[in-house]
């Protein structure tokens, strides 16, 4: 039985998931929130992006279940001896990748789908030194003649992977139609509605995205059974494995940093706009001073002080993973506590407007306390700004982590991140021949994550911002009704 390890960011991520589920339960019980989120659910690009984001979240959560494997008992140990656990911390994602080539490092660089090393070495063949490209330890190791058998074997594995992805996509379509058929006359009617995009939610677009995702994952999984799909880096580690492990780092940076900035931003923004006067002047002075300091220098100074504390107290960490995780957690706190001024400005401006409305004035006339007014009347009416800012800040923070890691003040060097991958590719692009696959893999994964987050954030902004409601007559026209504007749109 392995020993489960609960790191700081693991606990924070699962608490965040519990908070999202709690918010979903609240949305289900609130007609106003349910109607607003229904507008997001009718946006095809947003829901297609949500499918991709859920795939990234699944990878991140699998990589957040950490444990230390139990080692076999030492020879001659008594039967009642306490179990011994490995010093290295593994995750559930590592366990899933154990049967693939991704978890087997090579000696140094190898190109994508290669069977030989990228650089030449001197080998002894029949007692004579020969300069040649040596065979890889794992990639294409099953081939007897890699020069002639590699591409037919790769195409065969690719076909099997695509077949598995197509089967998963069809299974998902069957489950979707089975779920929709309960509210319709038959399976045929449910299938026709999905195919004709005559459903409230864009199930057709979501299924197409899911099918394409299944095909891509199936193809990569099929090739990964015998080859390094995206090659290996200078130390021989698989590039695709590093990209999958970097997903969790990006999710932690984007989510925990956003949550860290909410308390000071909400508290100071509402207090400044509601009380005005000296309190407003003091809060403005604080965030104006904070924004006057170059952000990278402020984060670098805080990160260096944090690193000095970690280096001075090695007895606080029983594994290197705990040390690297604490640095990541503190980096999120630093970014959040130094980046709340923008949201604070927005909330202050909105609160200045809300405090002059009739219901706030009536509450003050009836003697309601300032705390109750801010909690019950002002906070609910600025939450749409908070939610919009949260979803918009996520993608920016993912990119910011890449910049910090590139500068050497980001995550721990032992932790995988997209910034570390880009940093290690600096000199690789200037080699001859050029090593391009490390940078390209990080770019593709970051593009997919940030683009999906931005598309979903745009839909949330348009749904929660009354001035951004869109005119959507398509479904009404298909139903035979005259097209009308959104009921919540301004006239």
TrEMBL record:
It comes from the Bacteria. Gene3D superfamilies: MetI-like. Keywords: Cell membrane, Membrane, Peptide transport, Protein transport, Transmembrane, Transmembrane helix, Transport. It is found in: Cell membrane. Its main location: membrane. It is a multi-pass membrane protein. CDD domains: TM_PBP2. GO terms for cellular component: plasma membrane. The keyword Transcription does not apply. InterPro entries: BP-dependent_transpt_permease (IPR050366), MetI-like (IPR000515), MetI-like_sf (IPR035906). PROSITE patterns: ABC_TM1. Residues 247-457 form the ABC transmembrane type-1 domain. It holds the Pfam family BPD_transp_1. The chain crosses the membrane at residues 6-25, 46-67, 158-181, 207-230, 250-275, 287-308, 328-347, 382-409, 435-457. The keyword Kinase does not apply. One of its GO terms (biological process) is protein transport. PANTHER family: OLIGOPEPTIDE TRANSPORT SYSTEM PERMEASE PROTEIN AMID, OLIGOPEPTIDE TRANSPORT SYSTEM PERMEASE PROTEIN APPC. Belongs to the binding-protein-dependent transport system permease family. This is Peptide ABC transporter permease. It comes from Bordetella genomosp. 2.
